[in-house]
Amino acid sequence: MSYVQGRVDELAGWVAEGDVVVLSGAGLSTESGIPDYRGPSGVARKATPMTYQAFTRDPIARRRYWARSHLGWRTIGDARPNDGHRAVARLQELGLLRGIITQNVDGLHQAGGARDVVELHGNLARIACLDCGAPSARAELENRLRQANPYFAPGAAEINPDGDAELDDGELDGFRTVDCTDCGGMLKPDVVYFGETVPPGRVSRSFELVAGARTLLVLGSSLTVMSGRRFVLRAAKDGIRVAIVNQGVTRGEPYASLIVDAPLGEVMPQVARHVSALYAVET
Ligand SMILES: [Zn+2]
């Protein structure tokens, strides 16, 4: 542990200097009960995420998605922020963060007290109509899905971080999806599917944050997906130091000057305590 401890202390020193940009991934939410796509080995699990093309073009794929997502929402919707999320919010409160960028769609940064979070891949709690653009709340949609499917009650299933649950096609029989109450159009969670691009405004905002950072702090991301890895590449190119706290293998290794391979729910509160103590002494 002393080897990890030394690195945690070094990280706290970096964070105390301020202008930190946090880039978080699924590993930050695993301690809230939301499983990662990849285990500590970094090997992808069997789940195939929904693609935008399949969702919009294939009614059966869409029905399968909503049935599984309706099931998965029980886990995602009930998830609570963990000590890692709260520690990030604390660092923000201390004025040490330049920004928070997340690849997660669970809203747990905000639930943990953070503000102004750039949600690269959107948020499962929001629904949008693909035809008229009307936004609506997930809770409302869940009520409508429950009413439309009063007898849908499959057993416990494996849940993925995008809210998708494993479910046999046999269990889908008769599942009814619901449409936009305004125009009857197609509803979709306000999240970026595979095959969809992250809205340019979010990407440019993120690059802007990273460009002015003193430290890019990656939390719980294996950086397998380019949508997150590109910020690490940019930081490294611009000479901005990169720190990674992640359990298991990460593709950011060649670019990071500090890596802590330990649970985020333990490391981040230590960093926050360490930094808070420094501030208490100074003020
Ligand atoms: Zn509509």
List its salient traits.
three-stranded antiparallel β-sheet; 9 helices; six-stranded parallel β-sheet; 283 residues; single chain; alpha/beta; elongated; 39% helix; 15% strand; binds zinc ion
Describe the protein.
This protein has 283 residues and is α/β, with parallel strands linked by helices. Helix content is 39%, strand content 15%. The chain has a 6-stranded parallel sheet with strand order 3-2-1-7-8-9, sandwiched between helices. A 3-stranded antiparallel sheet has the order 5-4-6. The radius of gyration is 20 Å and the shape is elongated. It binds zinc ion. Residues 129, 131-132, 134, 180, 182-183, 185 line the site of zinc ion.
Count of alpha/pi helices: 9
Largest sheet: 6 strands, parallel
Instruction: Write down the overall geometry.
Output: elongated
| C-alpha termini separation | 31 Å
Overall pLDDT: 89
Task: Give the DSSP E fraction (strand runs of 2 or more residues).
Answer: 15-25%
Helix/strand class: alpha/beta
How many whole angstroms does the radius of gyration measure? Answer: 20 Å
Oligomer: single chain
Q: How do the strands of the widest beta sheet line up side by side? A: 3-2-1-7-8-9
* Element string (H = helix, E = strand): HEHHHEHEEEHEHEHEEH
Helical proportion, percent range: 25-40%
Low-confidence stretches: 39-45
Ligand inventory:
zinc ion
Secondary structure tally: strands: 9
What secondary-structure arrangement, pairings included, does this model have?
Elements: H1 2-16, E1 20-24, H2 52-57, H3 59-78, H4 83-93, E2 97-102, H5 108-111, E3 117-119, E4 122-129, E5 135-137, H6 138-148, E6 187-191, H7 200-211, E7 215-219, H8 226-237, E8 241-245, E9 258-260, H9 264-282
Parallel strand pairs: 1-2, 1-7, 2-3, 7-8, 8-9
Antiparallel strand pairs: 4-5, 4-6
The structure holds zinc ion.
